[in-house]
Amino acid sequence: MNAATVAYSPGLEGVIAGTTKICTINPETQTLLYRGYDIQDLMQYASFEQTAYLLLYGELPTPNELDLFTQTLVAERGIRPEVASIIAGFPKDAHPMDALKAGLALEALYDPEKNVHTNETNIRKAIRIIAKMPALTAAFSHAKAGTSLPPVLGAELNHAEHTLYMLQGQKPDALTAKVFNSTLVIYAEHSFNASTFSARVTTSTLSDIHSGVLAAIGALKGPLHGGANEQAMLTFLEIGSPENVDAWLETALTEKRKIMGFGHRAYKNGDPRAKLLREMRAEFITAKGANSPWPAIADRLEALMTEKKGLFPNVDYPIAYLYYMMNIPTEVYTPIFAIGRSAGWTAHVVEQLANNRLIRPKALYEGHPQRPWNG
Ligand SMILES: CC(C)(COP(=O)(O)OP(=O)(O)OC[C@H]1O[C@@H](n2cnc3c(N)ncnc32)[C@H](O)[C@@H]1OP(=O)(O)O)[C@@H](O)C(=O)NCCC(=O)NCCS
Fold this sequence. Notes:
This protein has helices spanning 3-7, 39-45, 48-57, 63-75, 81-88, 96-110, 119-145, 159-168, 174-187, 194-203, 209-221, 228-239, 245-254, 272-288, 294-309, 316-325, 333-354; strands spanning 23-26, 31-34, 37-38. By secondary structure, the chain is an all-alpha fold. Helix 3 (48-57) packs parallel to helix 17 (333-354). It has 2 domains: 21-222 and 338-354, Citrate Synthase, domain 1, CATH 1.10.580.10; 228-325, CATH 1.10.230.10. The two termini are 35 Å apart. Strand 1 and strand 2 (31-34) form a beta hairpin. A 3-stranded antiparallel sheet has the order 1-2-3. It contains 17 helices and 3 strands. Coenzyme A binds next to loops.
């Protein structure tokens, strides 16, 4: 066995592809830390703004720092009228993830510091990206629905509340805002996942931060990654009611279907984020969906999948039905994941560029050996 064979791991499983100070996962203890803080504490106590600051700067903000950071986010919430009107003309059958990608690419063209690439400008651009993701998502959502994009509001709404307001045209109630904030915090970061790694690879060429985030959005769209939250809800809808779960799963497993929202590359004994969301859902279900079939469908499917396949739900599983109970259209679930993860993506790009080396692995060649030209 030569050295290349020994080092090869399909899907890069187990490969250490870089160093980071942003986030660590311990599958054995099922812990997930952002800059040393446990996700359990962050999702309970931190706002998305505090979390984004923590990820970008490495420390939780002081009250003054948070104030300044929030003011900047609020000031950057809007998108340019030129961009909004181009988005309004996008084909209505486009997927919102593609519209988000195209919308952010348009915003990048107008970024006031698009041609300057220092650590300081990258952090400012990061804040602008994080701030504009909800309006970019909402702009296409409204265009598609034939409704008007609501005017951007100020600091009276935090990032989570403002995101729901932009999407739904009305301020969410306190409980919905709290649960939604927790999902954004939970989505904000997850180490070297596929989209974050894509962002790091892209910017390791010294390309710009917007290009890194655009690459990440493309990677997140796939159903094996962020696209799973939309697919999980489509699965619940296909099942329809709790009494259908057993028969549905039997058929699905016979057809060797992948059950979306189960399994994880890093967590083989359960995703702590799914467990935490499951624990916090009780109050929300009581308030919003005592008669909703989705939690019962999800619980039965989870029990069967654990028993029959030894597979546990991942983060996208509980989020799917929580968002459904918030009346969010299924195809906006993955863009919302991107709204949260933009904090982690940009933090990783900034970290990558602070100590950059081009990411360029090798491949194990399995093609034809050298042969003579015989044309
Ligand atoms: C997340 C995921 C891509 C991890 O993939 P991975 O680490 O490469 O694991 P594998 O795909 O090799 O899975 C190992 C085995 O479990 C099975 N498996 C994994 N996830 C499964 C799922 N959701 N449904 C059915 N079977 C699954 C695989 O088919 C494979 O079986 P095999 O050994 O008989 O071929 C995978 O679990 C998956 O596709 N899940 C569904 C999509 C999803 O929810 N993604 C969001 C992740 S946060």
